[in-house]
Amino acid sequence: MPLLDLQNVSFVNDGKAILRNVSFVVEAGDFISIVGPSGSGKSTLLRLCSHLISPTGGNIFYKGVNMNEYIPTDLRKSIAYCSQSPYLFGNNVKENLDFPFSVRKMPFNEGRVKELFSLFNIPFTFLTADVQNLSGGEKQRISLVRTLLFLPEVLLLDEITSALDAENTRMVENAVSSLNNEGITVLWITHDPEKSQKYANKIITVEAGKINSLEVLK
Amino acid sequence: MNGSIAIDNTSLLIASSLVLVSLYLSYSQKLGIEKETLVSVARAIIQLVIVGYILEYIFGLESSLFTTLLLLFMAFNAAYNASKRGKGIQKILTISFGAIATGTVLTLSVLVFSGTIAYEPYQIIPVSGMIISNSMVALGVCYKQMLSDFKSKREEVETKLSLGADILPSSIGIIRDAIRTGMIPTIDSARTLGIVSLPGMMTGLILAGISPIEAIKYQIMVTFMLLSTTSISSYVACYLSYRSFFNTRKQLVSIKLKQDNI
To answer: Using a CB-CB distance cutoff of 8 angstroms, which residues of chain B are in contact with residue A73?
Structure first.
């Protein structure tokens, strides 16, 4: 049974068709790169998979069950989504990292934060940093840490390396690749066709709201 | 000035010449608001005369049932006006009425049971008028703030939702912000009482010949009750209306801001 199954998914917003009859399946352990020009509907596709929006046509099944049958909050804990423009709320980094724990009514786990900070090369002193003083790249990495404090089954990443320099991009790619090796399914929107081939086992090309091609690499 | 302040009609007529000052300024400065000024003055006179006669009649009735019905009517009108500021929010009229009624009933209960005022028309109606109109203003401000925040803080709400949070923790910052904004005018006016303004009720009592020391006691009571009622009404309204910004799948929906909301 596929982990995610999109059947004839369409999404219309304000009378404008963003996605039209999109169908594909995601198997457990897949690393799928989603490529395509700006405005083609890639981000909408990930937002649909994260259940932040629902299709206006067609259905999305998660583990064989229609997404609408799940409790939305449970679904979003299993399918994590990291947006293109990372948003850090509150005043400091700790407030952001405490949020996933408070959502699960669990105490803040400093050990887990340290583990992820070292994985993404973030000094631990950043924990008390003011979010306003962070660079775009730092915000992006903190936002990834926030998403990964509790490991999801599916990780949806929307151009998360766009604000990173070459070294940090490599580090994030390696970290995501190792999470995939541990069994986490990854759907990653990227603008870089070369990189998309390096880690992915499938490449989906989206154009004008439709899937143009689905290439299986490995 | 003696103890009684009954104004005779001649005095009132002479006082009406003050309107001419406003009209002259408008005319000489080409403000173009002479017609509006005259209409407003005419409306104020007609409305107040009607209200005066109605109140005289109701006070004479001394009927608790009629007083309660009048309070309900006032609360409904206030709810209707406040709800105009929250167009797009589902069941906004019901929410507004519930919020105003809760704030009014709780505040009046404390005042009546503590013996501060009696459930008599001549006491309950003016006091309720102050309570209800303050709630109405607070609610209007709350709705405006909520509509604007749910639009400008969309990313924050969706980020929290995507981290697995329910709709309440995802919107709690917006809810608190709206309640705070609704209460600020009342808090600000309480802070400047006696320094910037001698409020209407206190001024009225002093004019009626009551000693300023007695008058401030009433004003202190009014300050307490307005703080209580705006906080209760804003709290109830915000906690009931935030759900309108989400659908059953706990997804943030867009509420189109209408011109009246801005």
So the answer is: 164-166, 250
Q: With pLDDT > 90 as the criterion, what percentage of chain B qualifies?
A: 59
Chain A residues touching B156 at Cβ < 8 A: 87, 89
Neighbours of A44 (CB within 10 A): 21
**Sheet containing A57-62: order of strands:** A16-26, A4-13, A57-62, A65-66
CB atoms within 10 A of CB A18: 21
Determine the distance in angstroms separating the CA of B251 from the nearest CA of chain A, rounded to an integer.
6
Q: Where are the beta strands (DSSP E) in A1-66?
A: 4-13, 16-26, 31-35, 57-62, 65-66
Residue to mutate among B163, B249, B250, with most A CBs inside 10 A, is B163
Q: What is the pLDDT of residue B260?
A: 44
Q: Tell me the residues of A at the B interface, defined by beta carbons under 8 Å apart.
A: 50-54, 68, 72-74, 76-77, 80-81, 83, 85, 87, 89, 99-100, 102-104, 146-147
pLDDT in tens, B64-116: 898 899 999 999 999 999 999 999 899 999 999 999 999 999 999 999 999 88
From B61, B89, B112, the end of a domain falls on B61
> Both B113 and B25 in a single domain?
no
**Cβ A54–B249 below 8 Å, yes or no?**
yes
If pLDDT is split at 50, 70 and 90, which confidence band does A52 have? very high
Q: What are A5-32's pLDDT values in tens digits? A: 999 999 999 899 999 999 999 999 999 9
Q: What is the three-class DSSP state of B193?
A: strand
Answer whether residue B192 shows pLDDT above 90: no
- Domain covering A4-216: architecture: 3-Layer(aba) Sandwich (3.40)
Return all residues near A157 (Cβ < 8 A) that are at least 6 apart.
A46, A82, A176, A186, A187, A188, A189
Strands (E), chain B: none
Does ipTM come in above 0.90? yes
| Residue B109 shares a structural domain with residue B179 | yes
Q: Are residues B77 and B26 in the same domain?
A: no
The verdict on a CB contact (< 8 Å) between A52 and B162 is yes
Q: Do B163 and A83 touch (CB under 8 A)?
A: no
Q: How many structural domains are present in chain B?
A: 2
Q: Residue B59: pLDDT above 90?
A: no
Parent domain of B136: 64-261
- Nearest residue in B to A98, CA atom: B163
Q: Both B106 and B119 in a single domain? A: yes
At A151, list the tokens: 């490991």
Q: What is the pLDDT of residues B147-166, one digit of tens each?
A: 999 999 999 999 999 999 99
